[in-house]
Design goal:
mainly alpha, 2 helices
Length: about 90
């Protein structure tokens, strides 16, 4: 269970780092780009649309990994319960 918490923590840290990097890069790009206001707004719109798609894809990947981790944990727990039940049975 602790291993699963560690994996989840690492995954959230990676996602946070990616998100912060995207935001910082977008802000830097806007500040240093010599464009007219209309062009900047179009760029921001396209960037936000792309970011929305990337976040959606990433969240689907994370959901799939979490689902796999939950299933693996359930299976491991079931095996441990079965082992415990077998150990509690009297020998024939």
């Amino acid at each position: 269970m602790e291993n699963q918490d560690n994996e989840r923590s690492v995954l959230l840290s990676v996602l946070a780092g990616i998100g912060i990097g995207v935001v910082v890069g977008a802000i830097a790009g806007l500040l240093f780009a010599p464009r007219a206001g209309t062009e900047t707004r179009e760029t921001v719109s396209h960037t936000l649309t792309d970011l929305t798609h990337k976040i959606s894809e990433l969240s689907q990947q994370v959901a799939a990994k979490v689902k796999t981790a939950v299933e693996t944990s359930k299976q491991a727990l079931g095996e441990k319960v079965a082992e415990s039940a077998d150990e509690g049975q009297p020998s024939a």
